[in-house]
Each structure stands twice: as structure tokens, then as C-alpha cells.
Amino acid sequence: MSGTVQRYRESGPGFAEGEVIDRIEAFRRRRPRLREERITLAHGAGGKSSEALVDAVFLEAFRNPELAELGDGAVLSPPGGQRIAVSTDSFVVSPRRFPGGSIGHLAVHGTVNDLAMAGAVPSWLTAAFVLAEGLEVAELKEIVADMAAAAADAGVTIVAGDTKVVPQGAADGLYITTTGIGLVPDGRALSAAAVRPGDRVLLSGFMGDHGTAVMLARGDLAIEADVRSDTASVAGAVADLLAAAPGTRWLRDPTRGGVGTVCNELARAAGLGVVLEEDSLPVRPVVAGACEMLGIDPLYVANEGKFLAVLPPDEVDAGLAALHAHPLGTRAVEIGSVTTEPAGTVVLRTGFGGTRIVDTLVGDPLPRIC
């Protein structure tokens, strides 16, 4: 790809050397602008519309150095104390129960995993519930039991919470918001700023399981397939990886927007390119088949029990060995590398030897799945 870019730079007709391709790259790297006057579902899909909403509304109002990192969690340094990571997330999945999990599992796993991506050891959660009038108490008890089991498995304690009830029709049965706190070991620092050209990109397992499972569970697509959500706490797998590969640069769980969108976030934040190898991307055949029937690229389908990691080349073997020894990382694989050019861009090298740009998710092509 870099050779192609160079040829364009040398031959752009009517412009100075490199002006055409540089203008294109600069346009693609621009943060999207909020143009809509009303909120749409696309603003919650994790792609360009979400970025525009965050930039124009939340970042503009709450601007501070920690928030400006735009991570899934913030690492804070209290005076005289150990660094802590804080993360919060809301869960609105429909249906509330699906093959492999429920909204209760997601409410724990989603926040615990965001803490793990910051390099923290997850320790405590708070939980807030918005309940719609008419929700069956028996279902609520089942969801809360799922949360308790997930928290126990992840080694975290739910220490505080809140409950609100709204009139029937004002909410879709049940919404949950969780906030998590974890402790960051001394000397551990993960960020896109640490990523270097030549680093390798690892994925801890099959992609697209969760989003596909939820879409099929709704029953309105007339597709029958045995697909289960991958929702799980990855904190243990992350701890094993960091112990074996202490030079790990960056971590992120590819939830909304999937692997493709998260890799774009990495490329822009690091100011580098990411080249993915199509033949290395792990997708279950049943997931690939379902996505093909729906016209969806698995690169953009959500995951809830997987993570991406960027490692220096000399630690890849040790990192993969550690992941393969963990139950959640048996299918971990290297899927790409970090390059100098094209900066801020993700490129997929296809099985036919060609390349195509993998852009950030645009619009809201998928039903809400988290």
C-alpha cells in the first residue's frame, strides 16, 4: 500500500507532488461534524455519527485532559495513592436474553472489560437500573442473578446502586448502567501514543459472535444458526498476556463498531497506519455465512468477550503462548501490523493480493446489540 501511495504522490496531475493523496488522507482523518438537529440511532452505533456527537456535545461541555483521551475508561492518579481506572457503560440490548448470555452478563462484562483494557485489575462495580412499569419481577430476579454470577466469576464486587421506575412505554423493559473501578499496577501504561511502526496487532479469538447471536435471536431475519454470544470477562486473559508480554502497548475490546472501527480509532490516535491481513481474521464459518446473507462485514460486528492488543515484535510469540493457554484465548492470532503509512488509515490486504481501505463504521447498519 505504501508503494501505491508513493506512486500517487509522484504522479498527481495538475498538483504539486503528493498534494492529491495528501488531501484525500487529510479529509479521511478529519473528525466528523455533528450536522443533525435531532438524535438518531446512528449516534449510538459507535461509528462516525457517535464520534460527532461526543465531540460536539460531551467533549465540548466536559473538556479535560482525561476525557480528551476518549478511551473506554480513564486512568486517574489520586494524590499519594495508587492509580485507579474508572469506566461507566449503559446496556439496552434487545432481546434481554440471547444464546450465550443476557443483559445482566453484559452489564458486568462490558464494564469489567473496559477496566482491563486500561491495564487495571477490576475490583468494584456500581449498578443503576431503569425499570419499566409492567416488567415481571421474576425476569428481573433472573437478570440480577446473571449479574451476580458474572461479577463473582470476574472477581468484582457490586458495592452500590440505584433504581428508577418509569411509566409503561417510557422504556423498553429494563436498562442497566454500571460503573467500575480498578487498580492499575505501578509501571503499567497502555496508550495509543506508545504504539510504534512494526508493532503487531493481535486478536484474542473469533470476531462477530456476539452481534450475530443477538441479531439472530430476535427472530425477524428468518435465519436459523447455532451462534452464541462471546460475552465474558477478559480480565484474566489480559493479566496473563501482560505478565508474558510486559511491553504490550495498547488494548481495546471491539464492541460497538467491531474490529474495523476500533482499528481506525487506533490508527488516528497513534498517527500511524494499520494493515490487516484478511486471511488471518478469525471468523466462525456460521458467523461468516450469516453475515454474508445479511450483507454485513464481520469486521463491523460487535464482540463482548474479545480484545485487540498491540505488541512489539519480539514479544508476540510469548504473548500468543500466554493467550493460547487461557480458555478465552485459544484462538488468539496475529491479524496485522502497524505501519508508518498511510497514517491514520486502516488497510486490509485481501486474499487475492489486493488492498482496500477499512473505514470507520458509518451510519447505523446493524440493530442495537449492546
Characterization of this structure:
The protein has 370 residues and is α+β, with helices and mostly antiparallel strands. It has two domains: 107 residues, PurM-like, N-terminal domain (60s Ribosomal Protein L30, Chain: A), CATH 3.30.1330.10; 166 residues, Phosphoribosyl-aminoimidazole Synthetase, Chain A, domain 2. It is built from eleven helices and 14 strands. The strands form three sheets. It has a seven-stranded mixed β-sheet. Strands 1-2-7-5-6 form a five-stranded mixed β-sheet, with helices on one face. Strands 3-4 form a two-stranded antiparallel sheet. α5 runs parallel beside α6. The radius of gyration is 21 Å and the shape is globular. The two termini are 35 Å apart. It comes from Pseudonocardia kongjuensis. Belongs to the HypE family.
